[in-house]
Design goal:
This is Class I SAM-dependent methyltransferase. By secondary structure, the protein is of the alpha/beta class. It has five helices and seven strands, in the order H-H-H-E-E-H-E-E-H-E-E-E. It starts with a helix and ends in a 19-residue tail after the last strand.
Length: 234
């Protein structure tokens, strides 16, 4: 009974939110401005806290050092809460759909190696970088929009594409652009990517969750013959 009541309340809350904010940009701006995810450390929600990104950061540092990565595109970057802890010495570009968030990031963190741009992943061409990271973003979008965003991410990634991935998910569910989050399996339609070349395991934070890593140099992202992931970082 309690679980059903919570589900009904969540559905009502989401319907009200969607009516109040018609466009994708309005919805994600409202999420940040109203701090809908209610985390005291970061407006980007619990998944972007320092404690929740420990595995991710260790894996990224290992990948960056082993592969000599010189540039990163972080799409979306949110409020740039955990990223400084990487200690990345190369060129970093963070993009997000929320203009006020990007303005604040520029004011607080911008320098000659760290830049921020207002970008809609679904509609806009992205700056190119050796490593492109898209963490916990497509999971908030309708499948059609998520697939469009993935095409832009693919075009931007020169060497590595990293995307949140749930290999145990058996079907990718539809939903509106919202604060709601659901798992996506990037090897299933509408994405149908080949199996990742390696993964960063985030299961200590959330069971079954990975950041999948695809090498982009000379390889088709949507190969007909899938291969077993051959490693992990971290």
């Amino acid at each position: 009974m309690i679980r059903q009541a919570r589900s009904l309340w969540f559905s009502f809350k989401e319907r009200l939110f969607l009516r109040r904010h018609a466009t994708r940009a309005q919805r994600f701006s409202a999420i940040y401005e109203e701090r809908i995810w209610q985390n005291p450390e970061t407006a980007s929600g619990f998944g972007s806290t320092l404690s929740a990104t420990g595995e991710l950061r260790r894996g990224l540092v290992a990948l960056i050092e082993q592969e000599g990565v010189l540039s990163i595109l972080d799409a979306p970057c949110g409020d740039y809460n955990w990223q400084p802890a990487l200690g990345f010495a190369g060129h970093y570009t963070g993009v997000d759909i929320v203009p006020d968030l990007i303005a604040e990031n520029r004011r607080r963190y911008g320098n000659d190696r760290t830049g921020f741009e207002v970008v809609d992943l679904v509609e806009d061409e992205l700056p190119r970088a050796e490593l492109v990271l898209c963490r916990e973003c497509l999971n908030h979008l309708p499948l059609e929009d998520a697939a469009k965003a993935l095409e832009h991410l693919e075009q931007a990634a020169q060497r590595f594409l990293l995307v949140t991935h749930y290999p145990g998910c058996t079907a990718n569910q539809e939903q509106p652009a919202s604060f709601r989050y659901r798992p996506l399996n990037m090897t299933l339609p509408p994405f149908s990517l080949r199996l990742p070349d390696a993964v960063i395991d985030e299961s200590a934070f959330e069971a079954g969750k990975q950041v999948a890593i695809w090498r982009m140099e000379g390889r088709a992202l949507r190969a007909s013959k899938q291969e077993t992931p051959n490693g992990t970082y971290g």
